[in-house]
Amino acid sequence: MKRFTFLKNAFILTITSLLLRTVGIFFRVYLSNKIGAEGMGLYQLIVSIYVLASTFATSGISTAVTRLISEEAGRGTRRSIRRILRRAMLVSLLIGLASAAAMLFGAQLISQYWLRDMRAVPSLQILAFGLPFMGITSCLRGYFIARRKASSTSYAQMFEQLVRIGVILLIIDRFAALGMSAACAAVMIGDILAEVGSCLYLGIGYLRDHRRLPTAGNPPARKKGILRELLGIAVPITAGRYLNSALRTVENLLVPNCLTKYSGSKEQALSEFGMLKGMAMPILFFPSSFLSAFSTLLIPEISEAAALEQSRRVKKAVQTSLRVTLLLSIPISGVFALFAKPLGMLIYGSQEVGMLIGVLAPIMPFMYLESVVDGLLKGLNQQVSSLKYSVLDSVLRISAIFFLVPARGMQGFLFVMIVSNILTSLLNIRRLLVVAGVRIQWGQWLLKPLLAMTAGGVAALGAQSLLSRTALPSLLILLPAAAAGVLLYGLLLFLFGCITREDFAWLRRR
Length: 510
Fold this sequence. Notes:
Layout (H helix, E strand, L loop, with lengths): L1 H57 L2 H11 L6 H28 L1 H9 L5 H8 L2 H16 L3 H27 L3 H30 L16 H38 L2 H20 L3 H19 L3 H28 L1 H9 L2 H10 L3 H16 L3 H26 L1 H27 L5 H26 L6 H23 L4 H8 L2
């Protein structure tokens, strides 16, 4: 039954993620038409500061809550689980309030000396009010993931997106008429109200669900207090995320400045930055919905298995995760590489965005692997290793950006991104293999899928060539061509033995 529950939750999270990302892509297209590429660049700069503050506000507490409640492994009581959640929420609320105060009163200094654009001040001040709610929400999400109730977090995310889009649609035109600063502020108002709505939704859901927790049980003995255990898990994760976010923020502030030095135009630099981070990157991560759900749900599964010292179960989970990630990400990468320019034109009407997608498409398997492996390492209490690799990667990225981008422009930044993603992914994978005692099956997981994808790519291009002779719209050419390539890829995987009947039997078992 547990396998069925895992797959059901993975399906729920995947569908939710796909739906939200689809809506998000269309909404980004709408926003880019309203505020332009320069506005998207300013928006990304503001968001980079918000991500930095929210990283501190959430404090890695969601993972800590998931880990501790999962380790109860069905033996905990309503009282013991409630104690864990209350302590976590208190810590998150205090840190969220401190983060909000720092962001609210430091908005002008941040805009003047970091962003070097005073148009960001209202947006930063508005965003500060959402940080305490974000911290509490992260605790509640961790609780529901540990309880294997993915539907609650999914419904909350959908409600959050509905509120965000609804508010922005209502006010964006009035605010945009007042200038770019006001337009960005309108987007941030929508974000804050969405955060509040999500927090309230999950809070009501918790009040209903906690009544179903057992009142009697035999909770596992804890060597440390709950607060110390929470902090022991959360602090390394927070330090990693905070350092990573801080360094990424420095990077996001540095890149437009370096691009300005190369081109001599701040507007052009913001436009290029907005096209990459605000348009191309969301498209590249759009198909990763299943893998994101997979990574999230693996944390309680791996944590429980590790706590019960079930090494074979841990090893099997790691092998399955790496194999599934590679088999899914390789064809996605191939499709994006082959149809990058048509995708850019179809979605944004921009050949430049298509070019960016095409350059980064080959490293999509590394991007996706890094996300999944990060979740596995946290489930195995290896968050300190992730921290070290993340800091090393960010330092190297910033150093390379400082020297390469002023001389080579966007080409230099793309080169930095490619090398960085490959390096970080390989370091995390190496650590995971050592800890779990797993070996990569190069032939079955990598070489044969690449060969299958090559054949699928040829089929896709052939189908595109045939369909291009008709008067069909671009979308009705791309979809069948991509489908032909993916279908041949799947068939060859089956013939090569990369996918077997046992895999389908595993899916049917409960």
